[in-house]
Design a protein that fits this description.
17 helices, Aspartate Aminotransferase, domain 2, 14 strands, 2 domains, Aspartate Aminotransferase, domain 1, 4-stranded mixed beta sheet, alpha/beta
C-alpha cells in the first residue's frame, strides 16, 4: 500500500470501524497522542509503524505473541498446514492431536474445546456451570479487569449499554484476598450460585491460603470453580497458575500466548462437566456449547502445536520469569533513584509485570500515566503499562528498556516536582477501557 492511500485510510479510520480498532485496548484513547496510529510489520521483539519507525514492543499483541513476531518455527508450521487446507466439513486430524497433547500438558484437564477468543470460552464455561448445577447466578472477582465482552460480565461494568437489567442482576462480585466477601455471597444466595470465575492472580499475590479457600468454598456449596488462565496459562508455566499455586479448578480457560498471536482459545476441564456439550452422553440435556465455523481451522491449531512444542523444548516460561525479574529489579531501582516511589509502582509477577501511576492522594493518575507513556513512545518503545515478555526479549532488550525508562522517569520526576505535568501533555490523557461516555 502506498503512503498516500495509507494516510487516507488512517485519517478516516473512525468512519470505517467503530472505535477504529477491533479491540478497545488497541484504541486511540488507550495511547498518548504521539503513539503510532497503525503497525505495518513486526519481527522478534520489534514492530514498525506507518512511517517506518521501529519500536521495541512490550505490547506483543495484547500478550498474545509469546515467542516473538514472525517466529520462524511457528510460521513454518503454519505454512506447511496452509498447503494442506484450512477448513473442512469434518474434523481434521490435527484437532485430535492438539487435544490429546493439551490434556497431557494441562492440569485438571480431561476434555478440551477450541475457539477463537477468550470471551467465547469463558462464556462457554459459564453456560456449562449453569447446566451442570441447574443454577443461574455467577460470582466473579471484581478486582480482575476483564473476563468477557458478553452480557454476563460486561453488564457489570460502566459499559453496560445494551445489557438488560435482568441479565446484570445475575452476576455477583467478590473481592480478591477477602474470602469473607465470597462467603457472604454463598450465604445470601444459598444454593443459587452456579460458579465462581476468577484469575489466580494479577498484580496482587494471594494471601492466607485465599485460592484454596475459594476452591473449598465452591466444592462445599456445589458450585463450579472456573479459573481464567488467559494471561497466566502458557506464561507462568505450561501448567499455568493452577500448577504454580497448587489448586484444581473444575474448568479452565486459556488463550493469548498459546499460539504466538494466531487465534486460538481453549476451554478445558472435568469430563463430567465438559461432556454435557457432547453427543454421546444421554443423562442430561445437551448443552449447545461452542459451535463455530472457524473454531478449529487448522492454521491456528498448527501454530498452537508449534508454539507449545517450542515452549517445552526451549524452556520458554523459565525465560519469562528470568527476564521479568531483571526488569522488575531494574525498574524498582530506577524509581527509587528518582524518589518517586509514591507516584510510580511496579506490580505483579515477573512473567506479567505492570506499572501503576498515582497522584499525591494515592489515587490512579491518568495525567502522570500519559506524560510517562509519551516519553517512552518518543524514545522508540511501544508500551501501554504492562510488559509482555516474549522469548525474543533478551538481555539487550531489557538493558535498552531500562535506559529509556531511566530517562523518562527522570523527566517525569522533574515535572511532578515542579507541578508542570499539564504543560508536558501533547494531547488528551489516556482513558480506561470501561468508560460510560467517550
Amino acid at each position: 500500500m502506498n503512503k498516500s492511500k495509507l494516510k487516507k485510510l488512517i485519517d478516516k479510520r473512525h468512519r470505517l470501524i467503530p472505535g477504529a480498532a477491533h479491540t478497545y485496548s488497541k484504541g486511540d484513547d488507550q495511547f498518548p497522542a504521539n503513539a503510532p496510529k497503525v503497525i505495518i510489520k513486526g519481527a522478534g521483539a520489534y514492530v514498525w509503524d506507518e512511517n517506518g519507525k521501529k519500536y521495541l514492543d512490550w505490547c506483543m499483541g495484547l500478550r498474545s505473541v509469546s515467542l516473538g513476531h514472525c517466529y520462524k518455527k511457528v510460521n513454518d508450521a503454519v505454512s506447511r498446514q496452509m498447503k494442506e487446507g484450512t477448513n473442512f466439513g469434518r474434523p481434521h486430524a490435527i484437532e485430535f492431536e492438539l487435544a490429546d497433547y493439551l490434556i497431557k500438558v494441562l492440569p485438571a484437564t480431561q476434555m478440551v474445546k477450541f475457539a477463537k477468543n477468550g470471551s467465547t470460552v469463558t462464556t462457554a464455561a459459564i453456560k456449562l456451570a449453569r447446566a451442570h448445577t441447574g443454577r443461574k447466578y455467577i460470582a466473579f472477582c471484581k478486582d480482575h479487569p476483564f473476563f468477557s465482552y458478553d452480557d454476563w460480565f460486561i453488564g457489570t461494568t460502566a459499559c453496560d449499554s445494551g445489557v438488560p437489567e435482568e441479565i446484570r442482576k445475575l452476576t455477583l462480585c467478590f473481592r480478591y484476598n477477602d474470602i469473607s466477601t465470597l462467603e457472604k455471597l454463598f450465604n445470601d444466595y444459598r444454593n443459587k450460585i452456579a460458579c465462581v470465575i476468577m484469575e489466580a492472580a494479577t498484580s496482587e499475590p494471594p494471601r492466607d491460603n485465599f485460592l484454596k479457600s475459594v476452591q473449598n468454598l465452591c466444592h462445599a456449596n456445589r458450585a463450579v470453580f472456573i479459573l481464567d488462565e488467559m494471561i497466566t496459562g502458557f506464561r507462568w508455566g505450561l501448567g499455568g497458575a493452577q500448577k504454580y499455586f497448587g489448586i484444581k479448578p473444575d474448568l479452565s480457560t486459556y488463550g493469548k500466548g498459546i499460539a504466538n498471536g494466531y487465534s486460538l482459545a481453549v476451554l478445558a476441564g472435568r469430563r463430567d462437566i465438559m461432556e454435557l456439550g457432547g453427543i454421546i452422553q444421554k443423562k442430561s440435556p445437551k448443552v449447545f456449547l461452542i459451535s463455530t465455523t472457524h473454531g478449529a481451522e487448522t492454521i491456528s491449531l498448527a501454530a498452537g502445536m508449534a508454539t507449545i512444542e517450542e515452549m517445552k523444548n526451549k524452556r520458554v516460561t523459565d525465560h519469562f520469569w528470568k527476564m521479568g525479574k531483571l526488569l522488575q529489579n531494574g525498574l524498582q531501582k530506577l524509581i527509587a533513584k528518582r524518589g518517586i516511589e509514591n507516584h510510580v509502582k511496579v506490580f505483579g509477577f515477573p512473567p506479567n509485570l505492570s506499572m501503576g501511576f498515582f497522584d499525591k492522594k494515592g489515587e490512579s493518575s491518568a495525567l502522570i500515566r500519559t506524560v510517562f507513556l509519551q516519553e517512552i513512545v518518543s524514545r522508540n518503545i511501544l508500551f501501554q503499562g504492562y510488559f509482555a515478555v516474549s522469548f525474543s526479549h533478551k538481555r539487550k532488550e531489557i538493558s535498552d528498556t531500562l535506559k529509556v525508562f531511566d530517562q523518562a522517569l527522570s523527566k517525569l520526576a522533574v515535572a511532578i516536582s515542579d507541578d508542570k505535568l499539564e504543560k508536558e501533555l501533547i494531547g488528551p490523557t489516556v482513558k480506561g477501557v470501561f468508560q460510560k461516555y467517550n
